[in-house]
Amino acid sequence: MAGTLENVKARGKLVVGVKNDYVPYGFLNDKGDIVGFEVSLAKYVAKELLGSEDKIELVPVVASNRIEFLTAGRIDAIFATLGVTAERAKVIDFTTEYVSAAGPSVLAAKEATVSKWEELKGKSVCGIQGSYYNKKMTEEFGINLVAFKTQPEAYRALKDNRCIGFVFDDMTLQQKLKEPDWASYKIAVAPYEFQPMAGGLRKGDTEFHEAVDKAIAKAEAEGKLIAWETEFGMPHSDYIAARAKAAVAKKN
Fold it and tell me: Which residues form the Solute-binding protein family 3/N-terminal domain (predicted)?
C-alpha cells in the first residue's frame, strides 16, 4: 500500500484539515478565504512537497471530527490547533511541535466575580466538543460544561446568558476581546498551563512524517513562523523565537 507522501505526489495536491473559525490559527477573511497562522504553515508544507503553495485543499474541521477525518483518510494531515496529548498519541502521530500555546481561559461578562477555576464548581460554563481539557473541566473542577460543536454557537449562548462564561483557548478569547461587540467582557479566569501544538498525521507514516517535519524545520529556520505571528496579530512567542534560532543553528 502506498504511503501518504506517494499518494500526495501522485495526486498533485495536499489535503489538510484546518480551522476556519479560529482566529488567528485558521479563519475566514473578508473575502471568504481561509487564512491564518497554521493555514500559512500548511501551504508552506505543500510548497515544499509539491513546488507550489497552491497545490493544497483546505478542509474545514472542528475539534470533534479532525482526528476522525485523518484516520478515515479524508485528509492527509491536521493543522488545526491540535494540542499534543498522550491520549491522542495513541491514535495518531504528531509532527514536530511548533507552538506553545496558552491553555484554556474563561471569557465572561465584566461584572462576573469568579477569578479562579475552583470557583466555577457546579456552574454552567460553555465549551467546545472535543477540546482536550473538557475532562479536566468536569472531573477536576466540577464544572457543568455545556459543550457546543462550534464557537459561534458557544459565543451566542454566552451572550444569551445560557452559561456564565466560555472556556476556550486563551489566544482566541484574547482576540475576541478586541472586537467592539465584546467590550463588556473580560478574561475572568487565566490559563493554568501552556500546551504544545503540532500537526497530526496517521500513525506509522514514516516517510510522510519526515517530509512534513523537514518542511516545518525549514520554515522555522527562515523565520516564517515569526513573520506569521506578525501577520496574524499574535504576540511574539519566546518559544517560537527559540525554535527559529535552534533551526538556524542546526541548519548551519
Answer: 13-235
